[in-house]
Each structure stands twice: as C-alpha cells, then as structure tokens.
Amino acid sequence: MGSTRPAIRETAQRTGTAKRGAVVAALMLAMALAALDATIVSTAVPQIVGDLGGFSVFSWLFSGYLLAVTVTLPVYGKLSDTFGRKPVLIAGAALFLLGSLLCAVAWNMGALIAFRIVQGLGGGALQGTVQTLAADLYPLKERPKIQSKLSTVWAVSAVAGPGVGGVLAAYADWRWIFLINLPIGAVALWLIVRYLHEPQRAKDASADTTATRARVDWAGALAVFACGGVLLTALVQGGVAWPWLSVPSIALFATGLALAAVVVIVERRAADPIIPGWVWRRRTIAAVNLALGALGLLMVAPAVFLPTYAQSVLGLAPVAAGFVLSVWTLSWPVSAALSQHVYRRIGFRNTAMLGIGTASLVLLAFPFLPYPGQAWQPTLLMLLLGAALGLFQLPLIVGVQSTVGWSERGTATASVLFCRQTGQTLGAAIFGAVANGVLASRLGGASDLDSVTRALDSGSAAPEATRRAIADAVHAVYLGASGAAALAFLVLLLLAPRRFPVLNEDDSRKTDVDLGVGR
C-alpha cells in the first residue's frame, strides 16, 4: 500500500492541471452528443416523414435508439472495467458518429431507423463511460463539480435541442440534425485521444492480458442484448402498435421471459459475467438501482404528458408549453451542484430521501391545481420538482461510485443508468395505459391521448369535455408518478444502509493508482 500512495498523489497533481480541463471538455462534448440526440430529432419529424414517408413506423426513430442505448449500457460498463475507459469511449463515439453519418444519407424510413439503432449502440457507451470517467478523474470531495457540469449539459440540450432541430429542418435540411454531430464528435474524439491517458495498471500475479481478455463474457453480452431488446420492444410497442393482450404482445413477453432465464443460466456459469451478482447482492447498489428505476418511471409524467396538458388545457402555444416543461432543467443542475453541502452533513441516503420525499409531494400537488388554471402554477411545480430531483439523483450516483474501486466502477455506474432507462420505458408503457384508460372512460369509445393530440394539432379547437378529460388523464398520471416517488423513498428507507460504505480514497484507487491525464 505504501508504494501506491505516492502514485496517487502524482495522479492528483496531473489531474489538477489544465489538461484535466481538456478531458472534462471532451466528456461534456461527448455527453452533449447523447443529450442533444434525445431532443433535436423530435421537431424535425414532419420534415423527415414528408421526405421519406413511413408515418406508421416513425416512432421507431426514438424507440430503436432508446432500446439500443438501454440494452448496451451493462455491456459497455463491464468492457470499460476490463479494457479501460478510453478505448470503450473512443469506440462508442466513433460508432455514434458513424450512425450519424449514415442517418444523414438514409434513403427511406427503414434505413433511417436502422441507422438510428447504430447511433444508439454508440450512445450507450457515451452515457455510461462518461459518467464513470467523471468519477475516475475526481476525488469524492470534488466529484459534484463534474457531475453538475454534466447535468448542465443535459439541461442546455433539453432547452436548445428542439429549437436547433426546428431551425435546421425549416431553413436547411433535416439531414443536418445528424451532420451537426460530426464536428462536435470530432473535437471530443481529438481531445480524448490527445489528453486522456490511462497508464498501465498493476495486475494480479495470476492474471495476464490474455487471461483478462479471455474472461470477457461475450455469450452473456449477447444474451443480455437479446433479452433486453425483446422485453423493451414489448413495453414500447404494447398498447401502441398492437393491444396489450394481442398475440404479438404475449409472444414478445413470453420470449423475453425465456431469454431472461437464459441470461441467468449463462451469467451463473460465466467466470466474469457481464451482470455480476454483486450488483444485486450489495445493499447499497441494489437499493440505488431500484430507486433510480423509480426515478426513470416518474420522469415520464412531466416529460411526456405535461406539454399536451399545457397546450390543450392551458391553451398555450407549443413554444410556451415547452418552456413550462424546460424550467425543471434549470433548477435540477443547480440543486445537484449544491447537494454536496447537504450530503456531507446528513449523508447520501438521507439527502436522497429528502429530495425524493419532496418530489413526491410536488407531484401529488399537481392534480390539485385549479382548472383550467394559469401557466405559472405548473411552471412553479416543475421548478420545485427539478430542485427536488437534483437532491435525489446526484447523491445516489456519487454515493454508489464511491463504494467501489476502479475495477468495478464501470459496471456499478452502468447498472444504475440501465435501471433508470428501463424505468423510463416501463413508465411510458404504464402511464400511457393509465392516460388512455381515463380518456376512454371520460369520452367513451376508443379514445386515446395520441388520437386526441393529433386532432388538436390539426387545428381543431378542444371542446370543454375533451379539455377536462385530458386534465383528468394527466392528473391520474401525476398521481401515479407521486406513488413511484414514494416507492423510491421506501426503498431507500428500508433497503439502503444509513451510511454508504464509502471506500478510503487511497484504497479505492489501489487498482487504478495512476489513472492520469496528459502523460
């Protein structure tokens, strides 16, 4: 241990130079690629469909990308623990840029969807590896700085993405929303290659490079990818492309469950599994996984349903409705940056419980807003919600990353991000069914939120009965989201340890004592 501490101090000196700033800039640019992609495409859909056709399947532009990102997160997390962060990040960024270029030259909707999946295969590496590197480069006391910067990237992208996409689609060509990724990604890649250096890590006497490579669980990776893809497809398309109790839906869920059994068998036999059992055996990580899964679920309520509520119930224009939603991206990173002052006093768990408890109350207040109400009322609630979730998410991510060493950090980070993404997919399915059920009961027949929204988008004025039905549907969704927040609170209260078992900084870096920058 004595020989490692001078190396740790040397690493701190190296990462304290301006070269670390270049790496942080690269990470922010890489994260911007993934963050912008989530919003910039949506506003160009009319132009894309008008050029390529395929209106009946255009939703797969988003679903295909989401599926690819979600199912590859645990695979990239394990690969980054095995081969290092730098090669995985470079490969992911290159794959994302290749997908962007192919999307820009797509000749029909089928090709564009396929190339969006290629983008997603790279996007999974960007999201997971950037978060892991942020923990590698900064000690625990400084980690909130980089995490708040990454949160700011998401906030700016959420606000700027739709506007940039609309401008490019209207005044240039929709293909530029993909081509714009190329210069951003090229700068990020250059900075990573030039300034991020991972010196040779000390290996156990019983292990060599060949043995390490041989332990990569490629069979497990394929099984995880297939299982996740099938189950997420069933959740994304169920109730949309086909009824929940239809033959395609039942067949997909049955296939997904069978593949889940295959994953369990393969992973139990693997010497070094893609999803190791310790991810769920350790109380801290298991509790955070479940809590962030609930976060992904509750985030669907405002992200998906609030814009429709703002336009149809409050009568706002699309730009104003977007502002009502976007205000939570302003308070979220500010709250996340300040959360360190809270969790240093009361701990990671209690800070997260404070945040999610407040979020549950904010979500619960939404159904009690006056009808039809004024725009400042949901805007204020969204501002408070962002502040509450900033106190919730960041302490949990930083806390989990601080309980593991270098060799497990990629897997641990990927597991919490995977659960959050899966929660969002599950939330879209559950809350979509809830909203459609309320609308059908209020309006009669087979009314659903998509058909009502399309009718309103075509210029039809919303009758009073329709406005009230939409308000009731969104209120029901927010009640469900409040319940998800309460569930996350209970998970942390009952499962998470009161104090996270944070590793000593020296001990946590004994496997990566010289993860340096600018060597």
UniProtKB/TrEMBL annotation:
Keyword annotations for this protein?
A: Cell membrane, Membrane, Transmembrane, Transmembrane helix, Transport
Q: Which residues form the Major facilitator superfamily (MFS) profile domain?
A: 23-500
Task: Select a single GO molecular function from the record's annotations and give it.
Answer: transmembrane transporter activity
List locations, semicolon-separated: Cell inner membrane
Which SUPFAM superfamilies does the record match to this protein?
MFS general substrate transporter
**Any one GO CC term of the record:** plasma membrane
Q: What membrane topology does this protein have?
A: Multi-pass membrane protein
Q: Which residues cross the membrane?
A: 21-45, 57-76, 88-107, 113-138, 150-170, 176-196, 216-236, 242-266, 287-310, 316-339, 351-369, 381-400, 476-496
Q: Which domain of life is it from?
A: Bacteria
To which protein family does this belong?
A: Belongs to the major facilitator superfamily. TCR/Tet family.
Q: Which PANTHER family match?
A: MAJOR FACILITATOR SUPERFAMILY (PTHR23501), VACUOLAR BASIC AMINO ACID TRANSPORTER 4 (PTHR23501:SF191)
Protein name stated in the entry:
MFS transporter
Organism in which the protein naturally occurs: Streptomyces sp. R11
What is the taxonomic lineage of the source species? Bacteria, Bacillati, Actinomycetota, Actinomycetes, Kitasatosporales
